[in-house]
Design a protein that fits this description.
Elements (H helix, E strand, L loop, with lengths): L18 E5 L8 E4 L2 E10 L9 E8 L5 E7 L3 E5 L2 E10 L4 E5 L5 E6 L4 H12 L2 E10 L2 E12 L2
Antiparallel strand pairs: 1-6, 2-3, 3-4, 4-5, 7-8, 7-10, 8-9, 10-11
Length: 160
C-alpha cells in the first residue's frame, strides 16, 4: 500500500459512452449498429447457418443516420457489435443565420447555436419556408456518437 494520493481528471460525461456492446445475433431490423465507425439504422439482417468451422454469421445492411449512405457488415452472431446511443431532442427554432446555422431554444431557456441546417432538401425547404412565414417551429435533433443533425420538424402554430 502506498501513501500517495492519485487524482484523476475525467473528460467523459458521467460514464455515458458513445456506444454499448450487444450480441450481433440480438440486433434486429430497425435497430441501430455501428458499421465502419458510423452510426447506422439496420434495414436488413440475414443470418447464415453455422459452417464447418464455427459460427453462424449475421449480415447487416445499415443506412448511416446522418448522411444516408448504405453500409454493410458481416459479424459472427455470437460476437458483440457496437450499438450507438441514439438520442432525439426537440428544440424550438429561434433564428436561422445567413451562414446556414440555426439558433435553437433549449428546455432550460439557453440557446444552442452550433447546429447547421439539414442537407435534406425537403426538410431544408420546410424549415426555411415555415420560418419565413413566421410559424412557430420545433425541430427534432438526432444525436449519436458526438454528431448531431436536425432530422424532423413540427409546426406548433403561428407566432404570437
Amino acid at each position: 500500500m502506498s501513501d500517495e494520493e492519485h487524482h484523476f481528471e475525467s473528460k467523459a460525461d458521467a460514464g455515458a459512452s458513445k456506444t454499448f456492446p450487444q450480441q450481433a445475433g440480438a440486433i434486429r431490423k430497425n435497430g441501430y449498429i455501428v458499421i465502419k465507425g458510423r452510426p447506422c439504422k439496420v434495414v436488413e439482417v440475414s443470418t447464415s447457418k453455422t459452417g464447418k468451422h464455427g459460427h453462424a454469421k449475421c449480415h447487416f445492411v445499415g443506412i448511416d443516420i446522418f448522411n444516408g449512405k448504405k453500409l454493410e457488415d458481416i459479424v459472427p452472431s455470437s460476437h458483440n457489435s457496437d450499438v450507438p446511443h441514439v438520442n432525439r431532442t426537440d428544440y424550438q427554432l429561434i433564428d436561422i443565420s445567413e451562414d446556414g446555422f440555426v439558433s435553437l431554444l433549449t428546455e432550460n431557456g439557453n440557446t444552442k447555436d452550433d447546429l447547421r441546417l439539414p442537407t435534406d432538401d425537403n426538410l431544408l425547404s420546410q424549415i426555411k419556408d415555415g420560418f419565413a412565414e413566421g410559424k412557430d417551429l420545433v425541430v427534432t435533433v438526432q444525436s449519436a456518437m458526438g454528431e448531431e443533425q436536425i432530422c424532423a420538424i413540427k409546426d406548433i402554430g403561428p407566432k404570437n
